Each structure stands twice: as C-alpha cells, then as structure tokens.
Amino acid sequence: MPEQSEVRLADGVRLHVETSGPADAEVTMILLHGWTLDARSWHRQLTALSEAVGTAVRLVAYDARGHGRSSCMPLRTATLAQLGDDLAAVVDALAPTGRIVLVGHSLGGMTIMEYAHRHPEHFAARTAGLALVSTTAEGHTHTAYGLSSRITRLIRLAETTGAGVLARCGSWRPPLALLRALRPSIRWLLFGDRCDPTDIRLVTSSVARASLRSIGGFRASIGAQHRLATLAELAHLPAAALVGDRDRLTPPPCAESIAAALPTAELTVCPGAGHMLMMERPDEVNSALLGVLRQVLGRPLSAGPLTPASPA
C-alpha cells in the first residue's frame, strides 16, 4: 500500500501525498493530476508501475492545492505560477537527491512547464525525463470542445464568467448530487468513445473534492499560459507526449506542438480516446512511462501486466 503523508508549503497550504518505493531509489517519478481531479486519477499507473519497476523507482503522486485531500488556499495563489513553485517545493521535500521523472496530465503538464520556466536551474539539475499526457503549452489556443467556432466563443465567455464567480466561493465543494446529475455532460467533455462506469464515478468523486475556489480560480492562468519556448529548452530530455483524437479540451494539435518543441518526445495519438487517457488507455500510457524510465535508467525494466483491475 502507498505511504500517505503531507507536505506543508511556505504559505501554510498542506498537500496530500502518496508514495511507494524506497526513498533511496535511483529515480523518483512524480505524477501530477489534472484540473479539478486528484492523484487517484493515476491509480492504474501507480499500481502497474510499482509492479514493473521494483526498487529502481520511487513513485510520488500528490493532490494539488485546493484539490482532493489537500487544503484550500488564498485566491491570489490559484495560479499556474504558484503550482510550479509548489512542485519545486515537493521535489525538495520528497526527492532532495537523485534524478526525477515528471509526469503531468492536463493541468499537471502545465505545472511541469511552469516549474521549468520559473526554476530553470532547479529543474535542469534534477529532471531526467518527461511525460506530458493530454495537456497543452498554448493555453486555450486549440480548445474548441469539438464544436463550431461561434459556439466555442459563447461557451468560453460563459465559462470564464462562471469561473470568476466560483473563485469567490472559497473552500466550498460542489454538491455530489449535482455532479451526479451532470455525469452525462462530464462524460461527453472528458471521455472518448468508451467510458468504464467506474472511471466516471471516480472523476465525479474527484470533482466533488475540489474547492470551488480551485475550480474557478485557476481558469484564467490556464487559458493564458504559453510555454512552447520553455519546452524547446528541454529538447535533450527523454520525453513522451500522448493525446486522444477525441480530446475536446486538449486536442491533437496541442500534443503535436509539444512534440515539435521536444524533438526527443515520442508522440502517441490514441484513436477514439478523450481527455482521460490514464483511464481510457492505461496500456498506452503505462508503456510510454516505462519507455521514458528505460531511457533514464539506461536498461530494461521487468515486463508484466500493465493494466491492473479497477478499484472497487
């Protein structure tokens, strides 16, 4: 079972952390979840990888500020810049020595880019590999929700206006009953052709744990971030970029621009998959993460079943 702990940040925010593997492992892999989600979204990766890597790799996953079991935060800190600073603090607290591999889904991928942008020397000294899953380096440039440009503009206006209202609601959480009623919309927005019922229940549960401040507060910086130039400075690192061709939030052009900035990145486009690749296509995601780890470690890793059963 993973070990649970907390990292207390300089501003008093407490991050809920789960770790597995020895503290003195050769490599620490840190997995960062997406907006309104929590570390449980990586459950298929954490279980499968812990079986495949043995004692060579330590696995770390944490809930971002305002998400999951981490505490809420002041509204002024609901920014990608702050999340990048938080990641630097997590690295110092949980992996003070040795190499790290950073894995980010959606907001988590943007957090990694912000860490590289704001702490370039810290990042360069520690980071040995990257995996960017269903994310973007260009804000909302390519986000069209699979709809016409006119409807997209209307949705974006409503979304940004609503985000401002939610951001002022503090640590309140969205009612689970309301989210259950919205499951068809959540399923349409986040998943592709197939959706396991356990996955939509997990996503709904995760959103119910996110504070309204985090749901609304991060929206502005998410839409405005542009970090392709930062990625281009990391072109020497082993990397992977993955996307589903039914992703309505970060469609294939997002991953294609990341791969263009990172020529070492292996680009994987998963047919029929949406935004939740870790759940929809765990084999592909697990294989990509193991591929990066093999390059970082310079040797093969044990082969085994890469898709564990879903949690009850």
UniProtKB/TrEMBL annotation:
InterPro entries: AB_hydrolase_1, AB_hydrolase_fold, AB_hydrolase_sf, Epox_hydrolase-like
GO cellular component, one term: membrane
Molecular-function annotations in GO: catalytic activity
UniProt domain AB hydrolase-1: residue ranges: 30-287
Gene3D superfamilies: alpha/beta hydrolase (3.40.50.1820)
Domain of life from the UniProt record: Bacteria
PANTHER family per the UniProt record, alphabetical: HYDROLASE, PUTATIVE (AFU_ORTHOLOGUE AFUA_2G14860)-RELATED (PTHR43798:SF33), MONOACYLGLYCEROL LIPASE (PTHR43798)
Protein name: Pimeloyl-ACP methyl ester carboxylesterase
